[in-house]
Amino acid sequence: MPYIGTPAVDRFTSTKAASVFSGDGSTTAFTLDHAVGSDEDILVSVDGVVQEPSVAYAVSNGTTLTFTAAPSSNSGNNIFVYYLFRTVGTVGHPSNQSLSASTGTFTGDVTIGDASAADKKILFDGNAQDFHIGLDDSADSLTIGLGSALGTTSHMVIDADGHVTKPLQPAFCSHPASDINNLSVGGVSNTTLVFGTERFDQNGDYNNSNGIFTAPVTGKYQLQFSIRLQQVDTATASYDFMITTSNDTYIHRFDPDFGDSDTEFLTVSLGVLADMDASDTAKLEYYINSGSAQTDVDVHSFFSGYLVA
């Protein structure tokens, strides 16, 4: 079957091994037939004398051979240039087209952007999730986030002054909507103390209907409460206020019998760095051993926590 298509070339051309020139006693610059990368990539002879690179001559722009002193005039060719190495070619990538590569190594600085007022980012194109690191030019901040679009789901933001914020880092603070009156006394188990009003709940891990915080990931969580009690009963043997997690219970216990009459106000507090697994819970509980159901929790009490590490 005959060949169909553009006919293939049927001959090849060879590159010159040397170039020859004639000196005239005044010309110092000559154009080479092939581009070279440095002065040492050619061997130059004038009137049979080999010239020293970078001293007797230099090469600029790849093809311009310039002598320090003009070669002498001669009736024939008296300048010989032998090519030891040649620059075959260079590749320049179009600035308006994307670049794809399987791997690469940079030995110097890499600049992203051209000082124009526009967002810039590096995108990590994953199988299940994409992530990005980018410059939010309007906010002058460096952002690490989820997805291919800059700023849609920011996980960490560093502003121009070095402040670091984590918009989705688990953190909450809750307080009672009003005073909680007449805490129950006795019984066989602890009673959950529900603080149903959120001052904030970053990442949505606190349930204000039952007062339970649920850890979204395994880690170390700083948990704390400050409870202002009213009408503390000195007839009670003990008060226990505690942070109860799936892994442990952290208790603040005190004996109220330190005066001749009931204490009108008393603040109890506790803080702990608790280990929690993903889906573990933490809540406030109390147990009043005996006495009268007269103790109230003031509205200015709070329960808060956040993921540390």
What does this structure look like?
With 309 residues, the protein is an all-beta fold. The protein folds into 3 domains: 18-83, no CATH class; 120-165, no CATH class; 171-307, Jelly Rolls (Sandwich), CATH 2.60.120. The protein is built from no helices and 24 strands. It is rod-shaped. The chain starts with 17 loop residues before the first strand and ends with a strand. The model has no long low-confidence stretch (mean pLDDT 90).
Structure, briefly:
The protein has 309 residues and is an all-beta fold. 0% of the residues lie in helices and 41% in strands. It folds into three domains: 18-83, no CATH class; 120-165, no CATH class; 171-307, Jelly Rolls, CATH 2.60.120.40.
Helix and strand topology:
Blueprint: E1 18-21, E2 29-31, E3 42-46, E4 49-50, E5 57-60, E6 64-67, E7 79-83, E8 120-124, E9 131-136, E10 141-146, E11 153-159, E12 164-165, E13 171-175, E14 191-192, E15 197-202, E16 206-207, E17 212-214, E18 219-232, E19 239-245, E20 249-254, E21 263-276, E22 281-288, E23 296-297, E24 302-307
Antiparallel strand pairs: 1-7, 2-6, 3-4, 3-7, 5-6, 8-9, 9-10, 10-11, 11-12, 13-15, 13-24, 14-22, 16-17, 17-22, 18-21, 18-23, 18-24, 19-20, 19-22
